[in-house]
Write a structure and sequence with these properties.
By secondary structure, this protein is an all-beta fold. The protein is built from no helices and eleven strands. The protein starts with 15 loop residues before the first strand and ends with a strand.
């Protein structure tokens, strides 16, 4: 019986990316396994008073963004990305409106240490169900 040669496969989650330096030198390999990431997910049920994610400390992330997906069959949702320096004082950085089944991204334009996403139904008398992800990279 003939033995098969064993193949080794590179794991899909550890690709090597060649970054091209700005001065056209030889590309430099960058291994994604050396980068740490954050991936959080939460489902929010917003009634007349709305709902929000917990306050998240994002200042230690080099980049981050939120993705929101409306799980409601009817009704629209208005989302707000709020950022602040101390977890008590807030500035509305981004707004997004989602229809049934719609998705969209909220990316902060300003750097602050803390952030959260608030959800309000449109009109306020309805309830909406929204799934929110936070993804970031250290």
């Amino acid at each position: 019986m003939k033995r098969r040669k064993r193949r080794t496969w590179r794991p899909a989650h550890q690709p090597t990316i060649l970054e091209k330096p700005p001065d056209d030198r030889v590309p430099v390999p960058v291994h994604l396994e050396s980068r740490r990431t954050v991936d959080l997910k939460q489902i929010l049920l917003a009634g007349a008073r709305g709902d929000r994610t917990p306050t998240l400390e994002v200042g230690w992330l080099s980049m981050y963004s939120f993705y929101a997906l409306s799980l409601s069959q009817t009704g629209r949702a208005r989302l707000y990305l709020l950022v602040g320096p101390d977890g008590e004082h807030w500035l509305t950085d981004q707004k997004l409106e989602l229809g049934p089944g719609d998705g969209g991204a909220l990316v902060a334009n300003r750097y602050f240490r803390y952030a959260y996403v608030a959800v309000r139904p449109v009109p306020p008398a309805r309830e909406v169900l929204v799934q929110v992800w936070l993804q970031g990279q250290v």
